[in-house]
Amino acid sequence: MTKVISLLSGIIFGIGLTVSEMANPAKILGFLNLSGGWDPSLIFVMAGAILLCLPFFYLMKNKTKPLFVENFSISQIKNIDSQLFIGSSLFGFGWGVVGLCPGPAIASLSFMNKYSIIFITSMLVGFFAIKFIKIKV
């Protein structure tokens, strides 16, 4: 049942990303371009998502477990180290340059956009390559 709920949630998320144009790199880059031609429309997408989720966060705040799994999955890592800083910086830089992050990139595969395919392929190569690269920073 958990896998079905996950699949349905992913499909709904992908549809939402597509309808809101968050799977469109030009729309994201327009939002991130503060120096000229700024497109503020994605603020409404984010505000709508926050308003929709707020009641559910309130209802779930005192629960001992989520609705569809046995326990909450909360990271025990609390420190901000150089790996976290570098990784999040690379993520933000890549998102700003390309206009895609993993969720919208996967949703945009339905359009068979060659840039999305290149992005996803590069992302997967990075996922597997990091297992072989031991960088101490």
Quick gist of this model?
The chain contains six helices and no strands. The mean pLDDT is 85.
Can you characterise this structure?
This protein has one domain (2-73, 81-129). It is globular and about 45 Å long. The chain has helices spanning 2-19, 25-32, 41-60, 82-98, 102-108, 114-129. With 137 residues, it is mainly alpha-helical. Helices cover 63% and strands 0% of the residues. The N and C termini lie far apart (41 Å).
Number of strands: 0
Main pleated sheet: none
Number of helices: 6
Q: What is the molecular shape? A: globular
Radius of gyration: 18 Å
Strand content: under 5%
Overall average pLDDT: 85
End-to-end C-alpha gap: 41 Å
Helix content: 55-70%
Poorly predicted residue ranges: none
Pairing-aware structural class of the strands and helices? mainly alpha
- Overall tally of domains: 1
Output the helix-strand order: HHHHHH
